[in-house]
Amino acid sequence: MRIPILYRFYEILPGALVWAALLGSVALSFIRPLWVIYFILVFDLYWLFRVAYFVFYILLSWRRFREAVSIDWLSRVQEKSDWKRIRHLVFLPICGEDEAVVRSTLEGLLRAHYPKESMFVVLAGEERKKEAFLRVAQSMTREFEHRFGQLWITIHPKNLPDEIPGKGSNLNYSGHMAQALIDGLKIPYDDIIVSAFDVDTMVHPQYFAYLSHRYLTVPNPTRASYQPIVLYNNNIWDATAPVRVAALGTTFWLMTELSRPERLFTFSSHSMPFRALVDAGFWQKDIVSEDSRIFLQCFLRYHGEYRVEPLFIPVSMDAVFGNNYRQALVNLYKQQRRWAWGVENTPFMLWNFSRDALIPLRKRIKYLWNQLEGMFSWATAPILIFLLGRLPFWVSREAPGASLLYYQTPVILQWLMRLSMVGLLVSVFLMIFLLPPKPQTAPSHKKFFLLLQWAILPVTLVLFGALPAIDAQTRLMFGRYLGFNVTEKKRTGSQLSYVRN
User: How far apart are CA 58 and CA 427, in angstroms?
Assistant: First the structure.
């Protein structure tokens, strides 16, 4: 299908802005060093503001998290007269994962404080991995078929037209299959909450009770998705240091966003009404970032009257795994690039927002700004702060007409970086409380190294933050569209699926 010229322009825009900022900073460091110095100074002041923003909202989310996990949500939801009408439909897309991963996830669902007869589970396999999937599906059916309300098996055919292989197309197919089965059971769509989970997702025991309570108490519940805190605790003790820093950074970013729900898109494992899912036409099957796109599909379907409700209870998944250190880092880079491919939402938003006058202008501007600024900062901020900030001083010993501010700028930048360390200290503090107990197989000094790992934060932000984001935006700019990369999920002897209470 031929892409309209204007849509291609929207695809080019994010990458063009990033490269203009980076190349412009380098060129102007030689031509107009004073301009770059003052730009970096303003940018670092802006970054300090972002750090203060981060600290305030992550501590607010932390307090709400501690409150949420201390409440008996099953008792709360049982106070609602109509709570028994709610059914939970859980999708678990599978693409070659070990049987141990699937089993531990199903066992985690059984540990949930919620009636299991109200839980329907879909094991959604791929025909391209059919033989391996059927072995897992048959084994899981024998073990779990009579322990849930329903356990359904679907196999997504390969090479279907107008789709790319991946989680989104699998969910699209299994969603339609589940709809037919639900219609046969004659369950009202408004009574079903869908949870689209990665297959390694371990839910907090109170997740479904808390989710049900929110669904029954928030205004207009079928016009909202529900986003939990995402942890990567399942194998965090066995992960490499860069993987741990990146995983914790993702958790902390999402926690700050949860306290600002007007900024939220759905991310990774989340829940939503089946009514909204059907109205939106299920997950888009020709994209990579289906987790955030489904929110935008609903947002457009309801002309802006759709939102994300935060859930201050966690789900836990696997951190990136590799058979060796190098492979783990390669897999981390690919995972971060896949997440950064969420930039594909930028042209989608620009194209569709301009064609829907029913969406309030303020909402359109707000979401577009959050998307553009977020993608731009992701790709540029670490490089501008840690690498290019010193370049004007290195290439120009003295700037003609320089003011006192010019000569004081290195000292000012140094102090701004020191003040920004508050964000790092808060991250270390929260890490201590979010980590699961140390496995007996882990050496006793591992906790000490988990504190030292934060020293590599600047390197991690550049290599596994900025670079994959630049990679993704550059690919989109040149029309080199990214396919879906499946993150490897395995269990070793010391890796225990875990969500901290």
Answer: 9
